[in-house]
Amino acid sequence: MSISYRDDIYLALRTIRYAKTRSFLTVLGIVIGIVSVVTIVSVANGIKSQVSGQINASGKDLILVKPGQLNKSNSSNILSNLSQLSNSNSISSLTQNDVASVAKTPGLESSTALNIVNGQVKSDNGKYSVVVIGAGDKFPSLANQKISYGEYLDSSSSDIYQAVIGQNIAYTIFGEKIPLGKSFKFHGETFIVRGVFDQFKSAPLSLNTDFNNAIFIPYQTAQNLTNNTAPIYEIMAKAQNSSSVSSSIKTINQNLLQLHGGIQDFTVLKQSQSLAITSQVLDSITYLISIVASIALVVGGVGIMNVTLVSITERTKEIGIRKAIGATNSQILMQFLIESSVLSLFGGILGVIISFMVDYGLILATSLSPKISWPILVIAFLLSLSIGIIFGSLPAFKAARKDPILALRYE
Amino acid sequence: MEKPLYNIVYGMSIINLKEVSKIYGFGDATTVALEEVSLSIDENEFIAVMGPSGSGKSTLMNIIGLLDRPTYGNYMLNKRSVDKIRTSRRAKIRRDTIGFVFQSFNLLPRLNVLENVALPLAYKGVGLNRRLKMAEAMLDKVGMADKKYFFPNHLSSGQSQCVAIARALVNNPKIIIADEPTGNLDSASSRLVMELFSEIHKSGSTILLVTHNPEITRYASRVVYMHDGSVLVDEATKIGEVAETAKKVMYKAPKKTIEDDLAGVSAIMDAIPQKNHHAKKKTAKHKKPVPKKRKNNIKRKKS
């Protein structure tokens, strides 16, 4: 190995510069592969950091009681994780008794329940299918959520048909940002908008309903509208101090288990746990899509192999000359191996640059906030480098083993 | 069969071939490129190898230059047998002791003159700065220092050959193998290149030079004339004089075959205007339609 790698790298760079178009087309597969893998991982990273933002916003000590059982024992199984996405809201195993039971649990500072009313909302602008949630008085304080405009629901008021809306749907339904005093029809009753929530911190793709797109009405009103059949979305509770959270969870679970006749068809967990499940599901999806995206990398590798093979045939004479003036087989091997690696790495760099642009576009166009981290970059570089080495080795071996006499005679 | 003339001087010689044969192909398609050639070359000899196309000159050069292995026979380079050593070791010996000069120059088009000359040093592992300095010094010797940043396609053929010679010399090889170095050059450039070889010879190198041009034998100290894979004539000549065998080729009936004409590489042929060339070829065809010797069922190798 006497010829220095620097020479080979320099030569490879020059070869790329000589045939810009060809080099670009060669590495296109690698570029696409790297862009997809980096984008997917960075989007997932972004979502995860949004999720942790959500945890911090609503308080880590929040206790949630959710209908159904979340399978969190087997996080490695992608399919079981994905199946949790389809948790339905229409049927709830939680009842009014459960709400009362949780409220009576000692050691809790406060608790409230959210229920869901199905139906269409009719405003002057048209009909909309919106999640309508019945919420108790303590919802804003438990969810640690502020009102931007107007006031929160007042259950003591004689007018029970009042609503507070999430920020995102204000414009969709009423055509203005602050639709205070506007009315809409729901289940035949006319509701007046009393307030608009501040932006809820929510993570895209999360298991939880996005409150920014929901309308909140008084809990009792929701019960009345549905003859007490509104399914309970979740029960929120807050422990008196953070040290008693787990003991409270245990107590609530025991009480509810008794009410449900020993069947665990509900889940009691901390807010942070609930979101952790979201990130687990997200990890599984990322993992799955990344595998699919890396097929593009393999295709790109085959492209590099193909072009390197052609280039070696083209440069047969060069190989012959190099051997005649004293290049050993391994030096020729190294030359072409480095050339394909540099080509592939060049594709990787291009891919990363395009990924940055794609991510910026996503930030502008969607609610996603992708994050490109150092580990992703390192992985992208290693990935493209190894593809160059793997797919460059066959052509390089072929080049190294050429007969110098035949190669010299080649025109 | 007529035994070729050769002198075996063991111990003295830098190159020693003993009954070396090279056979290509098998069955009906077997081609004998070299047939029991024995040749011993001392240090600081300037050998002109002559012979018609297909006489095995190039094969001989390839074997001596360690690009090829003989099918039979023994080759001692620097008193060491090099037949059975590994390919990578051969490459290193080639790099350190042998410099190649080709008819078509064989400069790498993507490297500039300086880098081309420095390439053998790179394979030896000489650092970048040192090797560029050495290459520059070598270019200075061949009078091409002012063209060091040129690319090969910007050089005339004579200049290209000078650069190629510089590249062959840069490792200080003991042996220079030149395969028709003047074949693509006009007479002025040929003279320039041959003067260069002459100087290299004076500085102590051993030179093996394949040529079709009898005039070139003026520079040689020994002329080997090959035919059908064997050495026919092996004579020592005085430097400055055309060798006797070459004279025959030059002034008497040239032993030309159709293949010679087809190859069209000889300097004599180049000198003849196109029309006459054609006419001569025809007459040659009528007079001597068949090559003299043909071994039963064995075709001669064409290069």
Architecture blueprint of SSEs:
The complex is a heterodimer of chains A (411) and B (303).
Chain A: H1 5-18, H2 20-58, E1 62-67, H3 78-83, H4 96-104, E2 108-117, E3 120-123, E4 126-129, E5 131-135, H5 139-143, E6 147-150, E7 162-165, H6 167-174, E8 183-186, E9 189-197, E10 214-218, H7 219-225, E11 232-239, H8 245-259, E12 266-270, H9 271-314, H10 316-324, H11 329-365, H12 374-400, H13 404-409
Parallel strand pairs in A: 5-10, 7-9
Antiparallel strand pairs in A: 1-11, 1-12, 2-5, 2-11, 3-4, 3-8, 6-9, 7-10, 8-9
Chain B: E1 13-24, E2 31-42, E3 46-50, H1 57-64, E4 72-77, E5 80-81, H2 87-97, E6 98-101, H3 113-124, H4 128-141, H5 157-169, E7 175-179, H6 187-202, E8 206-210, E9 222-227, E10 230-236, H7 244-251, H8 258-263, H9 267-271, H10 274-287, E11 299-300
Parallel strand pairs in B: 2-11, 3-8, 3-9, 6-7, 7-8
Antiparallel strand pairs in B: 1-2, 1-4, 4-5, 9-10
Helix pairs in contact in B: 3-4, 3-5, 4-5, 5-6
